[in-house]
Structure formats: structure tokens, C-alpha cells
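pls design
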């Protein structure tokens, strides 16, 4: 057994009962390494009790165990609020506490210059008896890092950062950027929050942080996923109460642009993203995400995205300035599933211009979730999207299981319309999209495909010459 490679022992250990691994570590040094590879590859540590001290002493101080660690989840739980303090005093206390606990964690991680590529997942939670339960405030307040995190040491061992907060109060959105600036070897950011109310101050804060970060985060290998608002009706089931909850989320939309006439956050993400290789974003945005608005400052320049290979955008039904991308279906009040040309036109015109400036692009999509009536008579969410694919591109699994039906069209460049019921961008925009595919892949035939609600794929040209377009 000792003659077997470590990798083989690790594979054997993976079949052993997880609740009784420790006893196998005593068999030999090889088995100890194999068991600790499983034991310490993924850890969850909390800010309470002695977790950080034990983690520092048992795991991080041991060079071998530190090498095994690939995924560290740091749970930050501050329990219940203190009713003797005012609301502002409690927010200040939360800000000080998170700065203190993140400082403790970052000081531990900074003890090594190892650039191994660990994932750090920060999960922010509060107890159910937090102060907002007793002193409701609108808009719901956010608290941030004191000093924007400048006091945190640089940590080189983290290559992937995941931030999740789904309880109240929340960290400011700019926290993701403030933390990323302290992670010089970062290659991936994933930000998820159910903050569907796009508060003006918080969006501006994130926009300013992205602009201020400049080249600090401009790495050619950075992969970014942002989910900024809970606007995806796939999070709700088909029951009436859940459907009504989705309707509320898509009607309570504050104006996030005021007199600016464009979305500063979308513009900031566009300018900041030029060195990314992957971008997946969802939330409330307008065409500023793709192309400069005429209302932006005159010195705004357009540069290419030379390395961007995948670009996925999932938009909420409302725009930042309280308009809608879809109007109500005639005779179906409350069901917005008919494209509105006044908002869709500028959006896809800007998208088509941006795609021309992405020479390495393999796949891109703009999608929504609209509500339609199922065959059983109740409303359900349905993906509506326009997809750009290069020849031989492997379809993203995030698009849905129907992508397996694209295999016959793999050699072609593809423009795909999923559940759009025959809708197309305006002719100049459509011609620009087609020309981009044809000029970039002149030796590959471009095909225009339709995908129906059940994931069946067909050639759109065939539909126009004899088949009926899919409808509900």
C-alpha cells in the first residue's frame, strides 16, 4: 500500500465513510496525508468563539494542511441587536465588528506569500432579532468597511472571492471592490445579494469604487459574476403567493438615475470590465452597460474588450429610470411579456456595437425572465433571450439544458432567439449582429435559430418559409 502514489490513496479515501475518516490517518504517513487532504480541503470557520484561533493554530500554521485548503468559508454572524442603542449606533457597531473580524482573518491569511489559488467565501448574517425588526427604516440601511478596507493586509493566497449576504442589514455593494483591492492575486469575484431595491447611494457607491479602483483590478484573468438584485422569478414557484411576490419585486423600483439620464453603475461596470475574460451579471441596468450613453460625459471613450470570451447579462424587467423592457400582454394585466421597442431598441443597438469590439468573444447573451401562462392555466416564469455564439463554442450550461440540442449546428456561427415568439431587433441592429458573425467567421455559415418554450431548436429561416412560429 505504501508504494501506491498519493493520488491513488486520496481516491481510495474518497470512498470511505466521511464520519469516520480520522482512524485511517493513523495507518501511515501516506494515509495521513490522504485523509487530511479530504479533511482540510474545505473548511467553514466562524467569527464567534475560538474558531479563528483554532484555524490559525491547527490548519494555517501547518504548511501541509495549509496546502490542502482549497475552499474557506468564513461565516460572520453578529447575533441579535442591542435594543439599548440607537439604530445609527448599532450600524456603527456592526461596521466596527466586521472590520475587526475581517482584519483578524486577513492577518492570518497574510502570514504566507503562497499564491496557491484558494477560494474565500464570506457569508454575512445577523440574528433574527436584528434591529431592523423593531425599527423598520426605508430604505433599508447598509453598513460598510471602515476606511473602505484600506487597513486590511494584502492576502496573496486567495484567487477567488465569493460574497453572499441575504439578511438585514447588508454590507454596501462597494465592499466587494474594497476587499478585492486587498487580494492582489484575485482571479474571480462572485457577488450575490437579494438587494432588489436598487438604492441610489449604494449603486453610486459601487460605481465610484469601480472607477476609483482603476488598474488595481484590471487583470486579464479576472472572472466576474454579479447578481445585484433579486429580480429573477425562477426563485419563486408557480403558486399564486409566490407569483404575486415576483410581481411586487418588479413594480417597487426606485429611480436609480435621477437627472443623469443613464445608469452610472452600468457605465462604471462597462468601463471597468475591459480587461476581463468572463462577465456574468444580473440586475437592473440599461444600455450604458454596453455602450456610452449620449448623456455621459464627453470625455468618455470607447475601447475594446480584447480578452472577453464570455459575456452573460440577465436583466430585470424594469429599467433604471422606471421604464419597462416589456409591456403588458393584451388582455393579461400584470403580465409583462411583450417587448417594448422604446427600451429594447437602444438596449440591443448598444449590445450590437459592443459585440463588434470583442474580438475574442465566444459566447454572449442578453436575457430576461417573463411570465406566461402554462398549458395548465397558471402563470410561470419563462426565459426570454438573444444569444450570440461563435463556431464550435461549447454552450454555457447556464443557458439551460436545451443547449444539448445545438449540437447539429456546432460548426456554424449562431444567432439564437429563445422564446422570443418571432421578435427581432430593429433591422439596422439585426444587420449589425449578422455582419459581426459573418466578418469574424467568414468560412463558417451563420445560422439564425429559434428555441421554443420546450427547448426545441429549429432554423428560423425554415420557420419563415413554412412552419408556424411557436406561441402560447
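designed seq:
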Amino acid at each position: 500500500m505504501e508504494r501506491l502514489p498519493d493520488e491513488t490513496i486520496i481516491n481510495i479515501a474518497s470512498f470511505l465513510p466521511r464520519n469516520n475518516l480520522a482512524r485511517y490517518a493513523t495507518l501511515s504517513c501516506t494515509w495521513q496525508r490522504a485523509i487530511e487532504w479530504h479533511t482540510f480541503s474545505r473548511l467553514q470557520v466562524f467569527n464567534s468563539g475560538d474558531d479563528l484561533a483554532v484555524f490559525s493554530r491547527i490548519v494555517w500554521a501547518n504548511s501541509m494542511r495549509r496546502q490542502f485548503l482549497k475552499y474557506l468559508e468564513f461565516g460572520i454572524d453578529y447575533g441579535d441587536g442591542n435594543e439599548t442603542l440607537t439604530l445609527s449606533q448599532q450600524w456603527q457597531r456592526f461596521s466596527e465588528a466586521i472590520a475587526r473580524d475581517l482584519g483578524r482573518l486577513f492577518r492570518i491569511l497574510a502570514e504566507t506569500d503562497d499564491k496557491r489559488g484558494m477560494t474565500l467565501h464570506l457569508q454575512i448574517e445577523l440574528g433574527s432579532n436584528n434591529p431592523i425588526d423593531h425599527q423598520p427604516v426605508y430604505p433599508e440601511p447598509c453598513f460598510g468597511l471602515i476606511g473602505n478596507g484600506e487597513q486590511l493586509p494584502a492576502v496573496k493566497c486567495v484567487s477567488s472571492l465569493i460574497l453572499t449576504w441575504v439578511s438585514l442589514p447588508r454590507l454596501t455593494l462597494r465592499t466587494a471592490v474594497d476587499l478585492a483591492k486587498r487580494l492582489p492575486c484575485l482571479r474571480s469575484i462572485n457577488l450575490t445579494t437579494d438587494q432588489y431595491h436598487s438604492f441610489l447611494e449604494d449603486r453610486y457607491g459601487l460605481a465610484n469604487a469601480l472607477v476609483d479602483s482603476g488598474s488595481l483590478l484590471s487583470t486579464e484573468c479576472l472572472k466576474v459574476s454579479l447578481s445585484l438584485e433579486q429580480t429573477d422569478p425562477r426563485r419563486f414557484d408557480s403558486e399564486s403567493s409566490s407569483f404575486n411576490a415576483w410581481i411586487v419585486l418588479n413594480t417597487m423600483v426606485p429611480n436609480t438615475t435621477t437627472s443623469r439620464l443613464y445608469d452610472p453603475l452600468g457605465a462604471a461596470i462597462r468601463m471597468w470590465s475591459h480587461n476581463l475574460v468572463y462577465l456574468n451579471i444580473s440586475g437592473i441596468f440599461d444600455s450604458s452597460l454596453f455602450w456610452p450613453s449620449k448623456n455621459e460625459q464627453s470625455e468618455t471613450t470607447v475601447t475594446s474588450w480584447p480578452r472577453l470570451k464570455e459575456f452573460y447579462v440577465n436583466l430585470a424587467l424594469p429599467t433604471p429610470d422606471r421604464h419597462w423592457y416589456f409591456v403588458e400582454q393584451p388582455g393579461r394585466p400584470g403580465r409583462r411579456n411583450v417587448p417594448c421597442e422604446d427600451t429594447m431598441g437602444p438596449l440591443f443597438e448598444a449590445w450590437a456595437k459592443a459585440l463588434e469590439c470583442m474580438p475574442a468573444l465566444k459566447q454572449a447573451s442578453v436575457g430576461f425572465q417573463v411570465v406566461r401562462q402554462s398549458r395548465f392555466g397558471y402563470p410561470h416564469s419563462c426565459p426570454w433571450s438573444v444569444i450570440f455564439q461563435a463556431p464550435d463554442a461549447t454552450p454555457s450550461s447556464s443557458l439551460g439544458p436545451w443547449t444539448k440540442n445545438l449540437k447539429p449546428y456546432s460548426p456554424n456561427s449562431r444567432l439564437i432567439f429563445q422564446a422570443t415568439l418571432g421578435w427581432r431587433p430593429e433591422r439596422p441592429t439585426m444587420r449589425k449582429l449578422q455582419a459581426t458573425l459573418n466578418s469574424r467567421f467568414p468560412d463558417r455559415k451563420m445560422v439564425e435559430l429559434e428555441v421554443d418554450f420546450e427547448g426545441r431548436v429549429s432554423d428560423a429561416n425554415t420557420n419563415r418559409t413554412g412552419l408556424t412560429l411557436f406561441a402560447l
